[in-house]
Amino acid sequence: MLLKHVFPFTANSHRNLPKLAPPKLPLQTDGKLHLDVFQYDMNYPSLGQCVVINNKNFHKKTGMGVRNGTEKDEGNVEETFSNLGFKIKICNDQTVSQMRDLLTRVSKEDHSKSSMFACVLLSHGEDGRIFGTDDCIELKELSALFRGDRCRSLVGKPKLFFIQVS
């Protein structure tokens, strides 16, 4: 299962982590606890962009079959993220190169007026990789395009990646 490789934690893996002192909670002069420092600032003109890559048909050399029913998933994703207020961009049947180029372009856009960024990948996948229509690519390579050193206008903002693979 893909998530096992993306999040290689087990139920007890937290026991091996070093013990840290609890964070000091922010108190105002009124003596009340204010948790707003633990929240993202959502006060931007736009919620942000949601890029959906939906790969249904694959080149024979990949050995991957057609992903029947993926149009329904795409429709549900589009409706949900639209209703939330995202600007939706849908790209179907993308090669690895097209996926990389698309997300590179999006990562270089100005997101300074957006609260966050979302990306939904619908495809085949295995072992931390996702398939374009012609080959596979490491998920880390795609998500790394949105790191703070590569996408300055999303620093300090949520970058959400939803991966559905079969």
Automatic annotation (TrEMBL):
GO CC terms of this entry: cytoplasm; death-inducing signaling complex
Domain Caspase family p20: 46-166
GO biological process: apoptotic process; erythrocyte differentiation; keratinocyte differentiation; neuron differentiation; positive regulation of neuron apoptotic process; proteolysis
InterPro entries: Caspase-like_dom_sf, Pept_C14, Pept_C14_caspase, Pept_C14_p20, Pept_C14A
Single GO molecular function: cysteine-type endopeptidase activity
Record-linked SUPFAM superfamilies: Caspase-like
Pfam families the record matches: Peptidase_C14
Family: Belongs to the peptidase C14A family.
Protein name: Caspase 3, apoptosis-related cysteine peptidase b
Source species: Cyprinus carpio
